[in-house]
Prior knowledge:
The structure is a homodimer. Chain A is of the alpha/beta class. Chain A folds into two domains: 3-58 and 360-409, Urease, subunit C, domain 1 (Roll); 60-349, Metal-dependent hydrolases (TIM Barrel, Alpha-Beta Barrel), CATH 3.20.20. Chain A contains 16 helices and 20 strands. At the A-B interface, helix 3, helix 10, helix 12, helix 15 and helix 16 of A face helix 3, helix 10, helix 12, helix 15 and helix 16 of B.
Amino acid sequence: MNTLAVTGGQVLFPDHSVAEADILINTDAGTIEEVGSNGELAGTADDHLDAAGGLVIPGLVNAHTHVAMTLFRGAADDKPLDAWLQEDIWPVEAELTGEDVRAGARLGIAEMIRSGTTAIADMYFFMPEVAAVVEEACIRARLGHGCITVGKDEEAAHEDFEAGLEFAKEHNDTANGRVKTLFTPHSLTTVDRQFYEEYIPEAHDAGIPVHIHANETTQEVEPLVDEYGKRPLEYADDLGILTEETFLAHGVHVDETERELLAERGTSVVHCPASNMKLASGMAPIQKLHDAGVTVALGTDGAGSNNDLDMFDEMRDAAMIGKLAENDASAVPADAVLEMATKAGAETLGFDSGRIEEGANADLAVLDLDSLHLTPQHDLVSHLVYAARGSDVRHTVCDGQVLMEDRELTTLSADDVMAEGSKHATELFARAE
Amino acid sequence: MNTLAVTGGQVLFPDHSVAEADILINTDAGTIEEVGSNGELAGTADDHLDAAGGLVIPGLVNAHTHVAMTLFRGAADDKPLDAWLQEDIWPVEAELTGEDVRAGARLGIAEMIRSGTTAIADMYFFMPEVAAVVEEACIRARLGHGCITVGKDEEAAHEDFEAGLEFAKEHNDTANGRVKTLFTPHSLTTVDRQFYEEYIPEAHDAGIPVHIHANETTQEVEPLVDEYGKRPLEYADDLGILTEETFLAHGVHVDETERELLAERGTSVVHCPASNMKLASGMAPIQKLHDAGVTVALGTDGAGSNNDLDMFDEMRDAAMIGKLAENDASAVPADAVLEMATKAGAETLGFDSGRIEEGANADLAVLDLDSLHLTPQHDLVSHLVYAARGSDVRHTVCDGQVLMEDRELTTLSADDVMAEGSKHATELFARAE
């Protein structure tokens, strides 16, 4: 057994207590072998990672993103969702190539490693390219090809759905188990009912979890209520979408009936607070979802509507907007938010990570605590949610491999990734003009 | 004339256009002597600051804070304003000493220099201590002793107001003009009417601008409406508070009549989006204030309710919550937010800064653009508001003096400030138990 010891730091335990401890990682298995404070772990390890003056936390889980959309960062802001998609995003996406997606994925994944994220759920196009980058970068991911029927004839729509299923079947459990897949119809209003009826059973049969956008804006709710006389998630339930493996992005406009339905079915929601604010979609009722017993994870959405992929920003946003939504400053407290970004995220994605514990995947980040904006230290959980930022992350480890040491990436070259990302963004937007 | 040249970077101009340019600073006067792109400025200067690969922006203006409250960072979160003040903040503030305030001010001002802020408005206690730190750190500030009458007998209340006026008169235009003062009654509901009637004319006579908390929560609105049958800002206007020099913190619950009144009087509002979210105070109608012609600046409020003093966070929050408040993704766009944090902030505080222009104060920050989360660069104004963070600031200059070079503070020692801040926070909270 080859081992790596993370030594000298404080550790955030699954119950959110913090204590000094060393961590011994089995780098062959990619798992945490032992967590202890007797000082003996360091001596036995093959390699060492210095966590002195730092706080070891689980690698953060970004449970909804479109990582290649880093190429769109800052290209079109301050516009409503519909206009933004139709005028700015879709025309450029029509010009996307696999090479663009690879460059965008490298840029986004590098940014996430630098800010302590080790696992993501991604829905986009040219997904074999994204899978290749996930493998290269050595993070953990659930990936799905986004399928859509609006604007397509029936044959093209079928091709799209077949491609989605094929990708999901082919790439599941690849990259040493770090890549798992998803079946990802875009949303309840952008996919015709007949395609849900045909393909959802196929996805279930193949054991592929379903991930869709749901109830993001009121415009996604009203047409379904008008057509079927039901709330969108009741409609989704009729189609067999709501299972324990399924997770829904956004869930902004979910009423009490829908919250109870989600709890009953064991279906999770991925909260994307920054995107919901920036696109003025609304405020998701996160405290009410928690109260109903629904598992809520956290996601950045794409960089086009955020505009960064920093899960520390997202935690802060979730705590902030959670209070506004309830008109109650005690709603969605720091503890609950930290859980969303770690354990709940990992559970939602079906990964055995999101916690520093013997036997779990060795996915973690080490934060520098020695900085002005984290002084004094009354409460480190508060600091993680309200004051820390991605740039405080010193080391990132996934699957027992060191992906960043002392702010230097090991699996990707930041300089190459930035140069390649800039080039592809420039050329892509030039083609779309 | 001694000079400093900031060379090799791009410059954000007052109209928010960006172009390569060098800046020549007259370090004796603390002003910008010349802005040019002919490459000659560098040769003539006594000193140089390397801005290659960077973007030079005006030093940010934090127009409402309680800087010494950095000692409270993370000590009490997730509680409503009233309970937070009464259970957590006031009992500890009762134990505050001048030395605590000095330590907290050093910590907060160091954090702000590290994140590109060069001017602040501060309202708190032991203000001569804060003034001394502002002078030592070499930033620019408007300072006021917070006066309050609730919980005090009449004699004590008078003493407090006399102290507030005395501080304002004694310290105005000190520290080479970098310290100016304010008269700062706490709020419309925590100060008895008779004290406004007595002291506001005195402040006006002494030429000291007034800064108060106003319309932060509905609990501050209702009692005044009940007692006087008027909106709070109509009541404030009756008391002669609303002038062109006055600025109000928060302004969350201001109705159309009040917005028009503010515009008519030329009174500014300081928006504090993070604090308003964290304390669930509500969403200030920033787009409507802009539309009415009211000048809106931006502030972090204290670290107890934020929990950092990073104006980049605050810009992002302002853009985000501004859209939610209007249910319109085009509301409060990046351009407007950048203006709030620079030009509008400087105007509100009465400083000749907030813009890179010949003759203006040489208050600026240089951001590193060469990073993953700022790639690609479709739009640098978008990046400043939505993607940049305080840790991207490489150099900070105020009054022509370099306060941070390559992330190293020059006027304060970060290590000493952190050690001193931790010690005072620990001892203060121990005393209050």
